Amino acid sequence: MSEFHGPGGPVPHIPDDMTTAQFMLDYHHECKPISADSQANPWVIDDATGKSAGFAEVCFGSLYRATYIDAVGWRFVTAISLTPYLVEDDVVGIFSPNHIDYPVMVWGTHRLGAIITAANPAYTADELEHQLSATKAKLLFVHPWSYSVAVQAARSAGLSADRIVLLEVLGETTSIDGPHVTLNQLVAEGLAAPQSFVERKLKPGEGRTKLAFLSFSSGTTGRPKAVCIPHYAPIANVLQMAHLANSATCPPHERKWRPGDVALAVLPFYHIYGLVVLMHFLIFYGESLLVVPKFEFLSILKSIERYRVAFCPGAAPLSAELTHQLAQVLPQVHIGQGYGMTETSTTISFPQIEQKICLPGSAGRLLPDVIARVVKTDGSLAGPGEPGHLVVKSPSNALRYLNNEEATKETFDDGWVATGDEVYITESADVFVVDRIKELLKVKGFQVAPAELEGHLFNHPDVSDVCVVGLPDDYNGELPLAFVVPSVAAAERIKADAAEAARIREALMKHVADAKVHYKRLAGGVEFVDVIPKNPSGKLLRRVLRDRAKEMKEQGKLSLVPKAKL
Could you give all domains of the chain from N- to C-terminal order, each with its CATH number? Predict the structure, then answer.
């Protein structure tokens, strides 16, 4: 058997008797740089106003918010009564773009022993309702920008309006009427309450099973599912990354991660990358997060200059060609990639620590304490340089999918996670992603399940059969493209009027855009075919159409030409 081990291990002691809040706020680990313990540097900075919060504000807000909910009860604006609100292992939702109070919401919830499920603020009401219902959320933190969708979804999920807590937007006035309390009011009332709450200490080993997050992922197939992530997993991943960062031998000013630097936090905190790598690892390592709620290109450039941002993370894959081009334009910048997924919470590989311009095309090097197997089609294990299905074991791996035994069996096996990606790994443990075995598409770093889009398109009267594939794109990674067999009626209209084909394409794209979050839209277009290729058992031969899409793109035969973006 051939296994690949991340070099540089083992990682020093990973505590399994504490929550993420206790780890981040109350505990010092030997992997944490001494300078990161300084309370002089802010932890989070609001991009729009420059307001910052450091250890004291984040810790204070987390502690006293928890004190108020648990010990005093929830004071509804209607002031009818004081009602005990959350109990241990209840689920709390967050429906918000990035906000400087995100750590307060997460770690305050964890102080209580409750669980966080964070949702994409661009979700439609149906998408949010699915997440709230699947997790049985008892409370929802909502950004005012997302209020109308949140109320509609909460109502459908059986969550009353008085269980919605509003965030306050710095520099803006919130003018929403209703039985809602704001997070700031919650903290203030908590400060005024008797300090009777005693935070529970976890038993040895309990952190390995007690849930911290229910983060949503499509896994290898199907509709998004809740991934059960225990407290131990993100703590382990933070220490794996910190241990690697500490192994750098170059002078401090040349290192990739440095306490005191400012990091751009535009990647969303609801996404596992933003949640674990940015909000946990970078803060742990002493970097300040410049919190940006929305990506606007010119504004981002100004913010990078204004706040002297030193670290700009991204989520979409960077090809070898783009790496070379970027290195030519920005010769002083460090460039590298990592690899991970929600089910591995989070990173499996990280940029090569000794390289300024990391190996072009590589997805980084395996982290310490990560074990990888590359499984060939015949079930045997591949050696260095041989492609196969990547299966990994890491202390950061999640446990299972929530209430989905079938999907769990497909992905989780005795501590191992089947990634669904075809890779090869070199003798130096550098990972190269070759292809996606699983059906999921990766659009700007987000997972898109073709089956979800196909199911929605089947509801359109002009669709008889459909298959959605990923169209390779240098900027986005992939773009969803739908191969559609028109219904009999639609085919007759197209035959009678050639212009009808364009009208049907636009209607199908709008059908998806009206119901799905932006990255799930058919940005690759709609192509009409006579038949969807399938095997004898009826399974879609998706790879056949993926190859056809690539060929059509190369030949310039696609009906919709994806526009290049800066």
Answer: 20-42+55-208 (3.40.50.980), 348-438 (2.30.38.10), 445-554 (3.30.300.30)
pLDDT digits (tens, 9 = 90+) for 442-495: 898 888 888 889 888 988 999 999 999 999 888 888 999 999 999 999 999 999
472 in Cβ contact with 458 (< 8 Å):
no
Query: Are residues 185 and 159 in contact, defined by beta-carbon separation less than 8 angstroms?
Result: no
Instruction: Tell me if 229 sits within 8 A of 103, measured CB to CB.
Output: no
**Helices 183-192, 102-111: inter-axial angle, 10-degree rounding:** 50
d(CA 183, CA 141) in angstroms, rounded, equals: 8
Please name the residues in contact with 511: beta carbons below 8 A apart, sequence gap of 6 or more: 456, 457, 459, 460
Q: What token pair was written down for 412?
A: 């989780």
DSSP state of 71: I
pLDDT digits (tens, 9 = 90+) for 334-384: 999 999 999 999 999 999 999 999 998 899 999 999 999 999 989 999 999
C-beta of residue 380 within 8 angstroms of C-beta of residue 366: no
User: What end-to-end distance do the CA atoms of the chain give, in Å?
Assistant: 45
Residues paired with residue 288 on neighbouring β-strands, in sequence order? 262
DSSP secondary structure string for all residues of 177-243:
-SS-EEHHHHHHHHHHS-----PPPPPTTGGGTSEEEEEEE-TTSSS-EEEEEETHHHHHHHHHHHH
In terms of Cα–Cα distance, which of 499, 515, 505 is closest to 560? 505
User: In Å, how far from its chain's centre is CA 212?
Assistant: 15
User: What's 435-455 look like in SS3?
Assistant: EECCCCEEECCEEECHHHHHH
Report the DSSP beta bridge partners of residue 447: 442
